Amino acid sequence: MQSTEKGKGKYIVFEGLPKCGKSTQANLLYEKLTQKFPEKKIILTKEPGGSEIADVIRKLVQGTPFTEQMTPVCEAYLYAASRAQTLRTVVRPVIDEGGIVLSDRSVLSSKAIQGYARGLGMEKIDSINRIALQNIYANTVYYIDTDPEICYTRAKKEYDGSDKFEAMDLKFFKLIKDGYDSFSSVTMETIPGDLSIEAVHGLILVSVLKLLHGNY
To answer: Buried-most residue among 98, 132, 161, 188 (CB within 10 A)?
Structure first.
């Protein structure tokens, strides 16, 4: 999965179960890269979200209680809509300028959650997202591989109502893990989530600096 080469910008994604530590790692990398490359445009974004419209979609699909249950296919289309907006208005412009985009989640989350855990299937997720992606793919994806029981325990302890998936049962967390495991070997660089925060950051930083070598 490679993004377009125009401007030689880089698009780096973090993936994993809810509460796996990916957001922490994305923030740590952002801090480090902004220090190391002060002359470069570096942004930190997320999916769903990252723009005014996409943030509204995020609240709708993840943080709004309804009397009816949202279907998996409805979720998938809403996530794709948010993705289409953010990729075009936030991610692509920075890549084209030669900057660096760090994103908390991507279309791979839809594959693991809606495609696998929610049962839609990978082909349907690909079909729904084909136009949304517009051939904008990450240069590299870091999958923080964390024990579902650890993520589940953290989610229960820290749940604030903003992400309905964090309120799901342990079985669902395990299904998400199985989803990631089904494609992680070919699409993502797996980072052990049982290491310390500092150790995980160190592994990612070494990898990212190799990716950026020759461009900055």
So the answer is: 188
Burial class (CB in 10 A: 0-12, 13-18, 19+), 150: middle
Secondary structure class of 144 (helix, strand, coil): strand
Helix (H, G, I), strand (E, B) or coil at 45: strand
Q: Check if the beta carbon of residue 115 is closer than 8 Å to that of residue 125.
A: yes
What is the domain class of 6-210 according to CATH? Answer: alpha beta
Partner residues linked to 145 by β-bridges: 192
Domain segments of the chain as ranges: 6-210
Please, what is the angle between helix 122-133 and helix 72-86, to 10°?
Answer: 30
Residue of 105, 98, 113 lying closest to 3 (CA atoms): 98
Q: Identify the DSSP state of 162.
A: S
Q: What is the pLDDT of residues 156-202, one digit of tens each?
A: 999 999 999 999 999 999 999 999 999 987 789 999 999 999 999 99
Which candidate, 144, 143, 129, 125, places its Cα nearest to that of 186?
143
- Give the start-end residues of each E strand in 70-177: 100-104, 140-145
